[in-house]
Amino acid sequence: QAQLVESGGGLVQPGGSLTLSCVASSSVSRINGMAWYRQRPGKERELVARISDSGFTDYKDSVKDRFTISRDYEKNTLSMEMRSLKPDDTAVYYCYVDYGGTWHHTLWGQGTQVTVSP
After folding, report:
1. Residue 94 and residue 45 in contact, taking contact as beta carbons nearer than 8 Å
2. How far is the C-alpha of 74 from the C-alpha of 81, rounded, in Å?
3. What pLDDT is recorded for position 6?
């Protein structure tokens, strides 16, 4: 069964750091790209960072220079290191994958809560 399992969320003080991880099951193959989205309270889900299969990365302006997205191709894992966290980063973070080559199947993780508060 194709699935994404996220971990790494939690409560952190402003200025702190967290690293999110997302493990894709072995049936998630021929990955075209992966991404992290977030949904802040009262807001729509938004793209935070994405990485193509070739390693090209792209970030939301407000997280550039603070967040780093990366992939471990052997372990089929997506990660995102978040530094200098701000209260405005508080959200549920979701892992997303586009896989299956030209079939472009899509899959979402269950979400992990990140709370930035004193």
Report:
1. yes
2. 19
3. 94
Walk along the chain (118 residues) and give the pLDDT tens digit of each residue: 899 999 999 999 999 999 999 999 989 999 999 999 999 999 999 999 999 999 999 999 999 999 999 999 899 999 999 999 999 999 999 999 999 999 999 999 999 999 999 9
* Bridge partners (DSSP) listed for residue 52: 33
Amino acid at 36: W
Number of Cβ atoms within 10 Å of the Cβ of 73: 9
Q: What are the backbone angles phi and psi of residue 47, rounded to the nearest 5°?
A: -75, 130
Instruction: Please give the pLDDT value at position 54.
Output: 92
Nearest-angstrom CA–CA distance, 115 and 105? 30
Q: 4 — phi, psi (to 5°)? A: -120, 135
Q: How many beta carbons lie within 10 A of that of residue 109, not counting itself? A: 22
DSSP track, 27-90: T--S--EEEEEEE-TTS--EEEEEEETT--EEE-GGGTTTEEEEEETTTTEEEEEE-S--GGG-
